[in-house]
Fold this sequence. Notes:
Elements: E1 7-15, E2 21-24, E3 30-34, E4 41-49, E5 53-63, H1 77-80, H2 88-105, E6 128-138, E7 141-152, E8 159-161, H3 170-185, E9 193-200, E10 206-212, H4 222-228, E11 232-237, E12 249-254, E13 259-263, E14 266-270, H5 280-291, E15 300-303, H6 311-314, E16 319-323, H7 326-338, E17 345-349, E18 364-367, H8 376-385, E19 389-394, H9 397-407, E20 411-419, E21 429-436
Parallel strand pairs: 3-5, 10-11, 15-16, 15-18, 16-17, 18-19
Antiparallel strand pairs: 1-2, 1-4, 2-3, 4-5, 6-7, 6-9, 7-8, 9-10, 11-12, 13-14, 19-21, 20-21
Amino acid sequence: MARKIKFEIAKFDKITPGGQALGTLKNGKKIFAWGVLPNETAKIQITKSKSSFIEGFAVEIFENSPERIEPKDKESFLSTSPWQIFNFDFEQKIKQELIFESFHQEKIELKNQEDFYSDGKIFEYRNKVEFSFWWEKSEENENDGEPSLAFFKRGGKGKIPVFGTSLATSEINQAGQKVLAILRDRKTASRDLKTLLIRANQKGEISAQLYVKDERFKLFSKEEITSLGFKNFEIIFSNPKSPASVITKKIQSQNQENLQDSVLGVNFNYATESFFQINLPVYEQALRDMKKFIDISKPTVDLYSGVGSIGLTIGAGDLTLVEINEPAVKEMQRNITKLGREKTAKAIFSPSEKALDFIKKGANLIVDPPRAGMNREVCEKILETEPERVIYLSCNPTTQARDIAILSKKYKIIYARGYNFFPRTPHIENLIILEIKNQ
């Protein structure tokens, strides 16, 4: 028996760090909802109900905010970019305010904060997209329906069929349709498909991985692969018991040539599945801002370094990069070799909290941790060793502010700037430069 759908009507006051609007019901319970702006009254379909709060998404707006605009992806924007309904200037303002709010919670006032940065490109900036699959009954395909690209619904079950996404480059959307056309021509059973991961470099070259649930999946023919025109294409068997698209076994690989991109003039190679920055032009601006605070006469330590795109771009000659993800470390080592930096840069496969001895007083320290922020042990080691400057780039200002509060015992903020790496989404990147206080 289907669960009865419930609704609530509420007026909303503010945007939270998680990206939802916050309101209060008549009984005092807090309500978090997608698809709503501050000062709007909306009817909300409930997706989660707890004793102290409920969550949902808007199905009807009774009082429109003047900051509301029409979304570009009307059917799927909640899945990919729920802030498409925000006027862009308003989005910029909200993101800056959320940074200030996060630091204010830790009793830190950000003074002389640089303007929140955007390069003005709010669509077609993503160089990586992972599509799911959706199907509908079709007389043309008896294998449980005609497949379509899709995204999961936010806050609920089910998927939404899409042609592509306005956030991605045109090359990515076109590549998705090319793969889909082959799958439809072959009358592929949708139940065998998991996801399609597509990346594009700045030249528009494509690398893609088709994740499937059956190890006996019929491989693409040479003619089909040639018709795609991709730099690299792989079919990956991914354990169907895992909801994530993990690589269990590569059952087909074409070319096996990684994509290459230039970051501030430094060339990086990266595998389709590895971590690499999604919005390179904005990332490069953040790197330019960081570089101003690097003392090239001193060694550089880059913690949570990913494939090394920060340290290898702006770090000094004596460079140590520490990363916990093994594929990223292998990619980083390949980049070190290709750049001819074997004698001046070393990649360390380790959690940052297990590599504390690399944090030294006389070094430039760069940290770019995951959303959880830095480990407590790392913060304590920084306080103990007192590197002159700490360059802290964060994808979560809330945990960044928490860490800065710990470090404020010995450090002061000398530079702060936020970046809109992912326009039309709640995602915020924030840079803080710390300098040791005069003893």
